Amino acid sequence: MKRFSWNNVWRVTWWELRKGIRSPVFVAMTLLVPVLIVGSGAVGYFAQRASHEQRFSIALAGEGAQDFQAFLEVSLAGSPITLVHPIAGPEDLEAMVRQGSIDGYLVFDAVEWMRGRIYYYTLNARSAKRQALQASLGGLLRYYRLAELGLGPEQIAAATTPVHIEFLSLSGEETSVAAQVAPMIVVMVLIMAALLSGQVLMYGVIREKRNRIVEILLSSISSLELLVGKLVGVGALSIVQVLVWVAAGLVTAARFVNLADLGLTVSDLAPAIVYFFLGNIMLASLYAAMGASMKDAEGASHAQGMVILIPIIPLFAASFIIMSPNAPWARVLSHVPPFVPVTVLLRLSATDLPAWEYASTLAMLVLSVIVFVYMGARIFERGLLQYDRAMGLGDLRAAFSRYRPGRTRV
Amino acid sequence: MDNILNATGLRKAFGSRVAVDDLSFAIPAGTILGLLGPNGAGKTTAVRMVMGILAPDAGQVTFYRHGRPALMDKSRIGYLPEERGLYDDAKVMDTLVYLGVLKGMPGYEAAREARRWLERMGLEGRADQKVEKLSKGMQQKVQFVASVLHRPDLLMLDEPFSGLDPVNQDLFRGIIRELQQSGMSILLSAHQMNLVEELCDSIILINQGRKVLGGRVQEIKDSYAEHIIEVRYAGSDHTMFSRLPATRLVKREPGRVVLRYRGQELSSLLGQLASEVPVIELSAKKPSLHAIFIEAVGGNGDEAV
Prior knowledge:
The structure holds two protein chains of two kinds.
Chain A: H1 6-22, H2 24-52, E1 56-62, H3 65-75, E2 81-83, H4 90-99, E3 104-108, H5 110-114, E4 119-122, H6 130-148, H7 153-160, H8 177-210, H9 213-218, H10 223-253, H11 266-293, H12 297-307, H13 309-312, H14 318-323, H15 328-333, H16 340-348, H17 355-384, H18 393-399
Parallel strand pairs in A: 1-2, 1-3
Antiparallel strand pairs in A: 3-4
Chain B: E1 3-14, E2 17-28, E3 32-36, H1 43-51, E4 58-65, E5 68-70, E6 77-80, H2 92-102, H3 107-120, H4 136-148, E7 154-158, H5 166-181, E8 185-189, H6 193-199, E9 202-207, E10 210-216, H7 217-223, E11 227-233, E12 247-253, E13 256-261, H8 266-276, E14 279-285, H9 289-296
Parallel strand pairs in B: 3-8, 3-9, 6-7, 7-8
Antiparallel strand pairs in B: 1-2, 1-4, 4-5, 9-10, 11-13, 11-14, 12-13
Helix pairs in contact in B: 2-3, 2-4
């Protein structure tokens, strides 16, 4: 038989890319994901804004409330909180809350006040607008305490201004919040793209099995050429998808921040792209093998939960990895074959790796890709023509058996 | 005549079940070889091994080009599998061009040939339709086109007539004959014995994975030392038929009998019949391929006469 042909691989790649781009699932996922991301962000933004715009009325009660009342009347001018007169006993105020004439009342107790505590009574404490009240009153209460202790306005301002640690590179370059968040978003987008395109590949393989076209394909090219063509095709498809998402993201981001502040340069992103592409091939070979080994889409969707979980396990520790990207355990995880791409991508979103770690993790990733593609190819070859049932353990054992004495050649 | 393909000692087992066992055959260049056998006999497994889709557990398949052993080149082979299928959601022309390109054709040439074949199949208006919009028969035609688009040297057709109406069976039969006359070698696996008998130069018959018969069609028929004798006669006395030497009564109706004669003296038997029975019509012929098939796979060939 003729040897492995890259021409055949490109032919399959081109077909898969063309078919994938036209597929309704791909189009829907590519367009829907940015809409969902922007949509969920917008929902959060408007919800927060709405809570800030809420107005409510409160009253004061208790010993020492007189002085605080005078202070609040001046300080709350223009805030969403309305202070209601007069100062009354808790029983009267409770009746006003029940009647709905005020939302709640603060009880000023001298002992509790010294302990840094003030009580707010409302009809239902669980539904109280805690955040809005805390935001409006928290600073004022602190200010009032410091004033009581005899500090002047300037001293209070100096004491209450939060101390912010600014992180600067030795080059003097400043890093904005946007620049810190942007790599994380890019990494999440890359991981999501890999998972989505892998699924497109898996269901494509199942469809080819179901409609039996696979036997015609195998009469023209080898199963390895078919697999590699699909993997490269899916890799290219992911890149198209990511480009669409990045373009949509940049257009949206440009309305809120200066794009130059994001600090995203091609040279910074290049390592992430390399890990993404190789990791994508590794993941896609798993998806292809699963598609080939399953009888139908239902079986595949059950199985993928277990199998695909393995390489994406680091995602569950994403916040810890991002917070401590150079922790010893994160470095070890970066060298464990199935976890390399996701772990390194998460670390790259928070830090730069030293050159030796790029080399060692890339070496492990290349090794992982070879092993995964080899294993995927054996399962793919064995499972493709098994139309009537899913592969079992016996079939998997046979897929990796070396017993091949027969020949189809000269 | 040079062979285009030589398969020797092919064996394939799936677990404990042996699908093909010690199967050997050759396809002479420019001829049609019929691969026959009952359902589950191992025909499709044999074809898949020849195509290199399945690796044999034992045995060897050798391809020849210009009379010399050559590397298997899938681009020189066309294949119509028994399990039919195409991309449902792709257009007919796109699918054919892709499959042609996979066989090594330039895209433009694949498109030109696809158009020519679609016209030949009466599907010229369907090129831009999605495959799922076509009837089953039309899809089968498209798949047949995909197997011959690249003008292969060797064409493997696994059950090409199944599911086709008589008109399209005739169309396929004519095309297969034309392809053979143009020099193509063909391996034809089919159940329609009349078509196999008409098209094939030689056949092999396999049962339970093993070859039970093989050779040129006429030679196989001649090697059967039996004749089927059908007699229409006047009257109703059939007792004399049971006295004839080396014959067995297969079928008896008022005024008509069918006999199987396993002897060497056909002329004298016919003479005896003519002298003792008021014959209206008398015929003697070799058993059909259908009858040979049924008898060879362990059935009673009487139903087929």
